[in-house]
Amino acid sequence: MEIPQIDRSSYLKGLLITARKDNQLNEEEISIIKKLSKSLGFSSDFFEETISHLLDNKYITDEPIKFSDEKIAKSFIEDGLRLALSDKVVTESEINWLKQTAEINNIGIDWFRKKLEDLQSKSSRIGMPDFALLSII
């Protein structure tokens, strides 16, 4: 699937917002965002510059993100949940923001809850599987 540039940018922005929701940025989160950033076609220089100022960047607003396609939105929500779960401490603000993003993209709360439960179960048993983004690009 060809992902429009605006959705690629929104995907990366959404991951950055998710990562800073708990006011900390750990190595696992940085690694995940870096891999997905590369898959989305962003340069490593752009990534390094963005991540170095993430926590204090007031230009990255926390508004939920609307994607052009439900498949992209579901992929983003799944990867956002993986990112939130990566540090083993999922905050209410991370979940609420991802839930708001699901709602603005007309993704049902039941789908969201099931995906969260599935990922929590998998992460505690075998670690995180491949990213959802890689299945659509």
* Computed CA radius of gyration, to the nearest angstrom: 14 Å
Q: What is the mean pLDDT?
A: 90
Total domain units? 1
CATH domain fold name: TerB-like
Number of helical segments? 6
In short:
With 137 residues, the chain is mostly helical. It is built from 6 helices and no strands.
Question: What this model shows, in words?
Answer:
The protein has 137 residues and is an all-alpha fold. The chain has one domain (5-128): Orthogonal Bundle (TerB-like). It has six helices and no strands. The protein has helices at residues 5-20, 27-39, 44-52, 70-85, 92-104, 109-126. Helix 1 packs parallel to helix 4 and helix 4 packs antiparallel against helix 5. It is globular. The relative contact order is 0.18.
Secondary structure: elements and pairs:
Layout: H1 5-20, H2 27-39, H3 44-52, H4 70-85, H5 92-104, H6 109-126
Helix pairs in contact: 1-2, 1-4, 4-5, 4-6
Summary keywords:
137 residues; 6 helices; globular; mainly alpha; TerB-like; single chain
